[in-house]
Amino acid sequence: MNHQERHTVTGLVILMMVLWGGFILHKAPSFPGSFVGSIIGIIATFFMFIPLLYMFVKRSKRLKDRFTKWMKMSTFLKWHIYAGIIGPILALIHTGHRFDSLVGIVLTLLMLLVVLSGFIGRYLLAQISTGMREKKKLSFNLLEQYESYSKQVKPSFAKNTAAYLPFFFKKMSLAFAGASSEEMTLLKLADSISDVEYSIKMHETVKLWFKRWLKFHIVISIILYIIIIFHIFSEFYFGLRWL
């Protein structure tokens, strides 16, 4: 997603949270069962099941091969993101801020949790991917410079004796030993490479935690869909009150 699309999605998430907080000032107990309220609920359900379809298509090679013939997965991902936020916004309007039943409360809280976990996870993934690419590029450039300078420098006793000292004391040790500027530059490059490699490892650790976060997002999404299906079944079972 580009910068403008990220701003749009962020705005929709903020709108969703504002609508949810509206129950403090507004309640319409009869609206969910009215004709208009039911139509909004049906449209909300349609939007909310698009992410479920995306999940099946993404994880099934057979479905993906057929689906990508008429839509790219990147385009479908955008549908997944927008539908995954617009659906809950319409669902909140459908509730009329009536949170009397346990099913309604659990459904609303899970819906908000799924959207927020997906939004945060998607934002973190974009940041991790961008940061990782930049750091790997920097590491490659530093290694090239290190290889270039290492050909000009011969191992010395002073350098070996300073091998296990912190960077500042290494620099002082080499300076007092009359080290050349190439040796000093090589030391700085080695220290920079060490920092970048450590940063890359930290990124990989964060990426591992993100995968766990993604599993959490999928699990609560499945629970949400089960409760939605139960909610739809109960509405049909007890009758549509506006008929």
> What series of H and E elements makes up the topology?
HHHHHHHHH
Count of domain modules? 2
Average of the residue pLDDT scores: 77
Counting H and I runs of at least 4 residues, what is the number of helices? 9
Report the end-to-end length measured between terminal Cα atoms: 43 Å
> Percent of residues in beta strands?
under 5%
Helices and strands: which structural class?
A: mainly alpha
Largest β-sheet summary: none
How many whole angstroms does the radius of gyration measure?
A: 28 Å
What labels describe this entry?
single chain; 243 residues; mainly alpha; 2 domains; 9 helices; 80% helix; 0% strand; elongated
Describe the structure.
The protein has helices at 3-21, 35-48, 50-59, 61-67, 73-95, 102-150, 157-161, 167-176, 181-238. With 243 residues, it is mostly helical. The protein folds into 2 domains: 3-100, no CATH class; 112-221. Helix 2 packs antiparallel against helix 5, helix 3 packs antiparallel against helix 5 and helix 6 runs antiparallel to helix 9 (181-238). The radius of gyration is 28 Å and the shape is elongated. The model is unreliable at 157-169 (pLDDT under 50).
Quickly describe the structure.
This protein is 80% helix and 0% strand. With 243 residues, the protein is an all-alpha fold. It folds into two domains: 3-100, no CATH class; 112-221.
Topology:
Elements lengths: L2 H19 L13 H14 L1 H10 L1 H7 L5 H23 L6 H49 L6 H5 L5 H10 L4 H58 L5
